[in-house]
Amino acid sequence: MTVAVVALAAAGCGKSSTDSTTSSKDGKYSGKGIGLAYDVGGKGDQSFNDAAYSGFKKAETDFKIGGRDIEPQDGESDADKAQRLETLAKAGYNPIIGVGYSYAPAVKEVSAKYPHVTFGMIDDSTIQAKNVADLVFAAEQSSYLAGVAAASATKKDHIGFIGGVDIPLIHTFEAGFDQGAKSVNPKIKIESQYLTQTAQEGGFSSPDKGKDAAQGQIDAGADVIYHAAGLSGQGVIQAAATAKVWAIGVDSDQYQQTALAKYKDYILGSALKNVGGAVYDLAKSVVEGKPESGTVEGTLKSGGVGFADTNPKYKALTKVVAAVDKAKQDIIDGKVTVNTK
Question: Which of 154, 181, 245, 265 is spaced 20 to 30 A from 56 at the CA atom?
């Protein structure tokens, strides 16, 4: 059931954690290395950005290339993001990857100026250019599995969803989760809350907001809570563990995250997006001289999304595991089409 996820990190205007210039030995690749621009929350979110970072590091190691990753800044504009990407392009990094939909305007602008550099755009498919790979994921499919798991594990027929920001991308997570849960129990009660209307308000970067929202849902009676809230999700998981109810993580296998180790017994599983794998594969394609282009979608069938089953307590819930496994196969076989809205 597990998707092998390698992680990657989004680049920002601030600190660079890595800056090396090694080229690959075979002579096919002459770039300075892989450039990565982090999304809101930055490295250390134990979720989306850290997933990206793992792919970045694996690419550096396996392909013996350099790399530079940069943290985001609070309240930055599209112009700030564009300047960051252009700095990486001028320095010779290739590919350059914007982690998160908010990079779309910057990637569109800068990729047009540097047609011989490959750009990766994670979680957005609106950029149509020969030198851009739109790296997207069927998050509704992994969220459907999260919904099946939640509805199968609840003892109260009462579960919850917490989204970081009220935007179409996160609505996709909610749609899949709700559909999956209702496939198990059409009458199940589902709490739903979005932390903020915009990313600038901290919906993806405020564990305190996540904790407060989760506590509200727990007080209302929910005993399994799924979050799609980035760094804010750490607060959701903390609240769930404190109340001794289940949390379901997102993007990375949050049961495995060091920063969440004290809460891991209450992480039922995680809806995975193989962001790291997408980053790694893009770097590989560039190094080999056959850069990816166009829309590249990760699905259950391709292994681009999945549901983490590393918690032994989850594995012990054999009926829950069987329900999730069946749902996964039904989606792969085309017996179930998952909603995106």
Answer: 265
Neighbours of 288 (CB within 10 A): 13
**pLDDT single digits (tens) 175-216:** 999 999 999 999 999 999 999 999 989 999 999 999 999 999
* Two tokens, residue 70: 């940069």
Amino acid at 125: S
CB atoms within 10 A of CB 326: 13
66 and 19 in contact (C-beta within 8 Å)? yes
Closest of 37, 32, 39, 45 to residue 16, by C-alpha: 37
Sign of CA dihedral 14, 17, 21, 25: negative
Total count of residues recorded for the chain: 341
Q: What is the pLDDT of residues 327-341, one digit of tens each?
A: 999 999 999 999 999
Indicate the SS3 state at residue 322.
helix
Taking alpha carbons only, the member of 253, 312, 264 closest to residue 4 is 253
DSSP SS3 for 136 = strand
Other beta carbons within 10 angstroms of residue 170's beta carbon come to: 24
Name the H helices within 156-302: 168-184, 207-220, 233-243, 275-287
The pair of structure tokens assigned to 220 is 């209302």
Distances (CA, A) of 95 to 61, 280, 282: 15, 10, 7
Q: CB 210: neighbour CB atoms within 10 A?
A: 30
